[in-house]
Amino acid sequence: MRQVILTIFLNVFVINVVVSQDQSGFESIYRDFNHGQSVDKNTEWTQAIQVIEPACRSEVKGKIIVKFTAAGMDEAKAYCWRQPTGENPNEWGHDADLTPTTLKLGKKGEGSFSFNADDFPAGPMNVRIYTTNKNGEKDVFELQLYNLGGVRWNMGIPATDPPGARGLKLVFSDDFSGPLSISNDGRNARYNAHKSRFGDFSGWPFSDVDGLDTPFRQVDSYLKIEARRKPGTKGSTGLIASVDMDGKGFWAKAPCYLECRFMAQSAPGTWPAFWTITGLDEGFAGDELDIVEAYGGVGKGNPNHTGYGVASHFWLQTQPDGHPGKVIPIMELGGKSYWSTTFHTYGLYIGLEETIYYFDNIEVFRHATNKMSRDYPHTFLVNYAIGGISGWPVDLERYGNGSDMYIDFVRVYALYDVDYVRPIQQVEEDGY
C-alpha cells in the first residue's frame, strides 16, 4: 500500500469502459448506472445531485421519502439491492427499481420518490440515485443509510466453510458482534489500529481508537469505520492490522485461506482494502497480497473503475512475472452487483504451489505462489483509506464530508497454527 503500488496499479490495472448512450430511456444505460464507472467522450459526469432528506448515513425504517435536487438534470432513476423474493428468488438478491416509472424532474431539478425500508435487508443499505439530461450529462449519488427494520439476510459468518478453504481448519474468526478489541498500537488487544509500522497512506489520516473522534464503532454485528472530516481538520479514518507494533498477534502460514466481507461507498476518494503482508516495515523484502483494492469516484480525474483490483507484490525481489494482478469484472459475476451496492466476500488462498483470489467464492485470478509467500507467515489488514497516495481527488462535500465502511466478518483457515514470529529478522538472516 505504498507509492510504488499505486504507480503500478495506475499503469497496469485501471481501465475505462465506453458504453453506448441512448437518451430515449434508461434501459440501455442500466449497466452504466450500476457500474457508475464509464466515461464516454460524448458525455460528462457532473455533481448535480444534492439530497435534502433523509440525511446521509442516517438511520431509517418503514416508509422512506427521498427528496433531492439535481440542477440542470431532466430525469432520474433510483435503485437499492434487495434480498431474494417470491417474484425474484435469485439467491444473490437483486436490484430493486425504486422508480419504476422514470422520474421527470422539476424546473429546478427537484425530485422525490419513496419506498418501504422494511422490504429491504436490515443494516447498511446504499440507495443509488442516477440523473441525466438531454445533453448527455449524468450524475450518480450513493446515499448510505442504516436500516433499523428490514429483513435479516446475508449477515454474519456463514454456517458453511468456503470452497477456497477446503482441507484447512478455522484458526481465526471475528464477526464483530461483541465489544471491539482495538488499541492504538495493538498491544493488549486483538487489532492494531493506528500506530502501525505499515505507514499511513490515507489522505484523511488513520486515526486513534481513543476519544470522541475514533473512526471505529461496533454497530449490531458490524465493525463500522467512519471516515469524517470536520471543519479545520485533515479528517480521520481507520485501519486495523492483526499484529501489534512488536509483530505479536495473528499470522497465517501457507497453506491458508483468508476472507473478509464488507460494504463501502463509491465516491471520489474512497479506497477500501483487505490485504496481507509478510513483513512489518517499508523498505524490507516481503510479499504483499492485495485481496481487494476498490477505488471510488467517476468523471474526469477519478478512477472510473469497472470493478476492483487484486495484485501480488514481491518487494525487493527479482520476479519474472513482476507484480501479477487483475481488474475483477464483478458486474459479470455472481449477482452482478458493484462493490458498493451490497456486501461481498473477498478471499485469498495461499497454497504451496498456487495463490488463488476469490470473489463471493468464485475464483477470479491465480498465479504461482512466490517463495516468500510460501515460506513466511502473513498478517492481514483491513482499511478505509480516503485519498492519499492514490493521487485521485477527494470530494465528499456533498456527502457531508463523511463515508462509512461496514465490515461483517473476517475469518482465516490454515493447516496449522502459527506461533509468534519475527518475519523481518528471518528474512534478513536468509539474505533476501
Q: Any overview of this molecule?
A:
With 432 residues, the chain is mainly beta. Strands 11, 14, 15, 17, 22, 23, 24 and 26 form an eight-stranded antiparallel beta sheet that branches. Strands 1, 3, 5, 6, 7, 9 and 10 form a seven-stranded mixed beta sheet that branches. It folds into two domains: 281 residues, Jelly Rolls (Sandwich), CATH 2.60.120.200; 105 residues, Immunoglobulins (Immunoglobulin-like), CATH 2.60.40. It is built from four helices and 26 strands. A hairpin with a 2-residue loop joins strand 14 and strand 15.
Spell out the blueprint of helices and strands.
Blueprint lengths: L2 H10 L17 H6 L8 E2 L3 E5 L5 E2 L2 E8 L4 E8 L11 E4 L5 E2 L5 E7 L6 E10 L4 E11 L21 E6 L7 E2 L7 E2 L23 E4 L2 E7 L10 E3 L14 E8 L6 E8 L8 E8 L14 E8 L9 E4 L15 E7 L3 E6 L2 E7 L2 H5 L3 E8 L15 E13 L8 H8 L2
Parallel strand pairs: 1-10, 3-10, 12-13
Antiparallel strand pairs: 2-4, 4-8, 5-6, 5-7, 5-9, 9-10, 11-26, 14-15, 15-26, 16-25, 17-22, 17-26, 18-19, 18-25, 19-20, 20-21, 22-23, 23-24
Structural features:
8-stranded antiparallel beta sheet, globular, 7-stranded mixed beta sheet, disordered N terminus, Jelly Rolls, 4 helices, 432 residues, 26 strands, mainly beta, Immunoglobulin-like, 2 domains
Question: At the third CATH level, what is the topology name of the largest domain?
Answer: Jelly Rolls
| Main sheet makeup | 8 strands, antiparallel
Number of helical regions? 4
Q: What class, by secondary structure content?
A: mainly beta
N-to-C order of helices and strands: HHEEEEEEEEEEEEEEEEEEEEEEEEHEEH
Uncertain ranges: 2-30
Our count of domains comes out at 2
Shape designation: globular
Give Rg in angstroms: 21 Å
**Helix content, binned percent:** under 10%
What number is the mean pLDDT?
87
